[in-house]
Structure formats: structure tokens, C-alpha cells
Amino acid sequence: MDGRGDMARIHIICVIQNPADIIVCPTDFYEELIMTMPLINPSEWEHMVQTAVAYGNELLDELQTLIDQWTDFLNTPNFVLYDRYGIPLCIATSEHQTLGLRYRHPLVLHGEVFATLVSAFDTTSLGESKPFQTLLLKTALTIMELTEWAETEAERRGEKVRLVMEYGLTPEVVQLLSLCGLDDSAGKALMAFETAMPIPFQGMEVLRRYLIAQAWRYRRQFPWLAYLPDGLLILQPWSREKSRYHVEHWLDQWTREATFPIRAYLQMMPNLTAFPEILKETQSLMQFANRFGLDGLINDAVERHMIRFLLQMTPESLEDLINTVLGPLLQDEHQATLATLKEYLACGQSLSKTAHNLYVHPNTVLYRVHHAEKLLGITIKDTEQLTNLWMALEGHTLLENIHRFHGS
């Protein structure tokens, strides 16, 4: 204990199912597991949360002090320190300070690059000096402590997600969420990430640290990040457009540098009341994506409103449904008719809107719809036949997306 609370230094060794898998857990997380099973008492959490926040701010203060020390050592503020994921550690760095910075000096500890110093002059000759090595060591230790602190915060929030899934939004759970920074003040974007293939525990750790760094960026206000069994959940008060931009950017960067694929799902959460239902929906969609081997942003491959039905089907039974219902429309000579029928139903059976979207005359749309009915031996005015047709068309779109994702 050094005045920072027991979470700063004390760890407990926890042995899990496989005796070979031994993990180190922060003390407060171990206590949390005990305290939340089966009773939840939020009043006992307030002090611990306040202590955790204060400790995080203290570490960020230490980081800023180190930046000041690097400034003195280099005799210039014209540099940037980046972590291993390319996130700037110089909290107050403005954009103009990065102009003309062309020398990159990897900072290495125990053979591993933990940060990169980017400056306007070559610092290689300084690397062996004692002041440089002292700063390097202090920076590495501070980044390590910040990383462990952030992981503990994400673990804590992950337990809250588990409680929401298990108990719903009881008053106690709502209070626990509020203590961890999640309230009903505004709508949020929910972004879920998980691995798209079985990986060792070390790989999961790399993924979570990467996402934490991307979403947090060492700001004072720690975002709402929560561990999921196979990944990480991120809640941010962003628009759909902004959220999609960040998700696609993070996925693209990960794809270029990582060794295993991941998937993501984005959904807007209008209020806290919707949290349990959206969590269940996200879990179902991720299970479906796992079954069909999808990676990347699965919003582009899965229609969320059809997921409950599609989840019950194997790839083989889905193909059987498509072939049985759509039959003749799957032939090459009827592709225009199939595409028109899809668009027509997607447009609420509006001839004018379908014609506008497909750049054809409304009479062409009408002809193709009637031709499709004739080929399939159905009428879309019949509710049961329309339902089967819509399911088959959605399944056909899904398989097309799966083939596109897999490059086949």
C-alpha cells in the first residue's frame, strides 16, 4: 500500500479451470466477483470507484510530468511520444507540433518496443545516456501502470454487463452502472468487438489493449469500456456516422497489422432502458456471425430484424429455403427480375420509388414483379407467401454477403 489504494500494488493469483492457465487479477476485481454474487450492494462500491478514478488521474499526471521531463531533456517541445498502437501520449500536443517531425526512435525495454519517440532531429546518439535510459524506464513503467489500470476499469464494467444480462436493470444494477459512468443522460453508440477465430489468451489481451488505447487515447474522462467474453464493448455518445467511421478505421488498422481476424457490430442505444435488449441482440448477432465465419463489420452482412429466425438455421437449411422458395429466379437469365423483386419489397412495394432506385420505368418494375410471381407460382398479396418470399430473399442477400466477405 502506497496511498493509492490496494488496487495499485496488490494482486492475487487465481487458478482457473485449466491448472496451466494462471492469471493475475487486481484485488478490487476479485472482491467485486465476491460482492456481486449473489447480492449487489452499490453503497459498498462508491469509495472503491472514487479511489480508482483518483489513481487513474494520478497516473495521467505522472505521464504529463514525464512529457515535461522529455521536453527538458530534448531541449524542445517539438516532439511526440506514441504508444505501441500509434496513440499520442503527449496529451497537450497540438497538430502544428507534429510538422517537420521525421526522426523515429523506438523505445525498447526487455527487447520489446513499448513506445516511439518522433522528433525533428536524430536522437539515436542520446539513447545510451543515463538520463535517456532513466526517462525510458520511467515512461515504460508509467505506461504499464496506465494499461493495467485501464484493463481493471474495463474488467469492472464487464462485470456490470454480466449483471445486466443476468438480472436486468434492477435499481441496484442501475446504480452500479452509474457509479461506473453509465447513466441515461443521452443516447449512445454501442460498438462490440470480438475475435473471429479461437485464439490463445495472450491474443485476446493484445486485442483488448489495442481497442482500449484506440477508444481511450489517454484522456481524463475514461470512456465506457467493458470486457466481453471474447472481446470488448465500447459505449460512446457519438452519432451513427461517427461511430461507423471509427469502427471501420479500427478494423482496417487491425487488419493491416494483426495476425488474426476480428469482427464488430454497431448499434445505436437511445437510452439506458434499451441496454439489456441491445446486449442480447448483439450477443445473438455475434453468435450468428461466428456460425457463418463472418469478420469485419457485420452490420453490412446481417439484417438485424431477421436474426432471430436466421439463428435457428444452419447454412445448409438456409440454402435449402432459398432454393425451394426462389427456385427459377436464381438462374442467370432472371437476375434482373430477382434484383427488382428485392428492391420492390425493400421499398414497401412502391413502384415509383423502386423505379427511381433502379433507374428504370415504373412499368418495367411492374412487369418484372408480375413475371417473378408467375415464375414462382405465388402472389405477393398473400401474407403467408409474402413472408416466405421475404425470408428467402433476406437469406439470399445474407449468403451473397458471406461470399463477398470470404472473397468467393
TrEMBL record:
Residues 338-394 form the PucR C-terminal helix-turn-helix domain. It holds the Pfam family HTH_30. It comes from the Bacteria. InterPro entries: CdaR-like_regulators, PucR_C-HTH_dom, PucR_C-HTH_sf. This is PucR family transcriptional regulator. It comes from Sulfobacillus acidophilus.
